[in-house]
Amino acid sequence: MEQLQHSAPVLWISVCCPSATLTVWTSAWLSGSAAPDDVLDALLVWGEAHEVVAADAESAVGLDLPLAGDFPASPVQLLAALRARGASDARLVLPVPGDVRGLGGGGALAEAALRAGEAMLLPSLGFGLVPLHIAEGLVRWSVYKVDSPLGPEYVGLAEAEHGLTDAIRDSAGALQALDVAKDRPGVRAELSAWLRARPRPQWPAGTPGRALRVLQRAEEVGAILAVAEIDEPGGALSASAATLRADALRPLGNAVRLARYAAVNEAVRLFTDQADRPQ
């Protein structure tokens, strides 16, 4: 597996969500490739403060966490609980209606993750964490017990890359056919502004280079997607044309989501494999 050779964390690769950051850094920490402070520092791009609560009694007992409504725990307490209970892996999920892969069926976790569009799973322990921005600079992580076994589907990077390439081609053709892909003034500036506004946290040293490249491409295509979804000034697009445009862009959005999912979980797989190797 190709890796970036860095003695320090990798910088400047955008990321889609807080769960992706926590998933990669928790995996690096569990494998011995990062310190607890590295995990905490990486989370700062999403908020100056993070708190952790249990969403149900089983989670509260299982990870020794306060229930929602009580004084919250800190991410440091969460990491200590994961270590004490022998956590060995983490996994990112990015659910949308119709695709809840990795959530082990329905239940409170699936509902919360669907609302947030993200979650971090701990398959070896049977818990999941969902973030919520509850105030300016404050992120609350709610921990849920999962009743059914967690079995996140593996998606290879090659499959995700090919899917992204195919979706770009197909979406471009569909939009041209609909005559809603015309250039508009300032579109390059819009793309640049969108990308600049994205959080760019550090990534652990040893994060596979190919995963980072796929993440970067997914963010660039995500910017194009976001700009393409913006209505023309004055609402020039009719309701029917807007619906057709949304239908044409949906496969591209799914491909971007799958690429993010595959890239983050490939980095996790590499860190987990490193931890499993005999020293």
Short description:
The protein is of the alpha+beta class and 279 residues long. It is built from 9 helices and 5 strands, in the order H-H-E-H-H-E-H-E-E-E-H-H-H-H.
Distance from first to last alpha carbon: 19 Å
Q: How many β-strand stretches?
A: 5
Number of helices: 9
Order of helices and strands: HHEHHEHEEEHHHH
What helical percentage do the residues reach? 40-55%
Structural class comes to: alpha+beta
The rough form would be described as globular
**Radius of gyration, in angstroms, nearest whole number:** 20 Å
The tally of structural domains comes to 2
Taking all residues together, what is the mean pLDDT? Answer: 82
Largest sheet: 5 strands, mixed
Low-confidence runs of at least 5 consecutive residues: 1-7
Q: Looking across the biggest beta sheet, what order are the strands in?
A: 1-5-4-3-2
Strand content: 5-15%
